[in-house]
Design a protein that fits this description.
This protein has 1 helix and 18 strands. By secondary structure, the chain is mainly β. It has a domain of about 100 residues. The longest helix has 5 residues.
Length: about 200
């Protein structure tokens, strides 16, 4: 990359890789870099609010930067990047501050999970609403959409008591624990084709 950074977000959209925000030393970064195989790394428009330990997802051809920390406080703010205009625009604030959140897109909505709770974003209405939290404290949260269901994996923290995999019951608006994990060390999870796993 052009700038060294840590605690930043990385996301892919339209075969391009974006490195978003982060920090360098004691400085919170707002800069954003985009990588293409033809041009390498280039700067694009910076975030409105510099942030690290945030979450990012893509939805409807746009990038959303969600929550995190600006170096002084945890953030509720959300912003959206439009590739065509190379601009970031503010979205509605979340109901709570979320740092190191698990974020995913599920059935056209953005879901955010952290130790602060859980909420859902409607991009058509530009509104956030709280959903049922996982019901036990602590841990980093990761989430994915798989087989038309929303899955959450809760993992490591100084005060986590367990690490488990849960699925969201949308009819009864609650989380159902499906299994536990042997260690509380989960920070991320991904959906990959079975063919990729079988080739390893």
């Amino acid at each position: 990359m052009i700038e060294g950074r840590k605690s930043h977000c990385v996301v892919e959209l339209d075969d391009k890789i974006y490195a978003i925000g982060g920090c360098k030393g004691n400085n919170t970064m707002s800069s954003v870099e985009r990588y293409t195989t033809s041009d390498g790394w280039k700067f694009v428009s910076s975030l409105i609010v510099g942030r690290y330990d945030a979450g990012t997802v893509t939805l409807n051809g746009k990038i959303y930067a969600i929550g995190g920390n600006n170096g002084k406080k945890r953030l509720k703010s959300v912003e959206c990047y439009n590739l065509d205009s190379n601009t970031w625009t503010p979205c509605a604030d979340m109901t709570e501050c979320h740092i190191l959140p698990g974020v995913t897109v599920h059935k056209g909505h953005i879901y955010v999970l952290s130790f602060s709770g859980a909420e859902r974003y409607d991009p058509q209405q530009d509104t956030w609403s709280q959903i049922r939290s996982l019901g036990f404290g602590g841990g980093y949260r990761a989430c994915v959409s798989l087989d038309n269901e929303l899955w959450a994996v809760s993992g490591e923290s100084y005060f986590a008591v367990k690490s488990c995999v849960s699925v969201f019951d949308e009819e009864n608006f609650c989380w159902i624990e499906r299994c536990s994990l042997p260690k509380c060390e989960v920070r991320n999870c991904f959906v990959v084709p079975e063919s990729l796993l079988s080739s390893m």
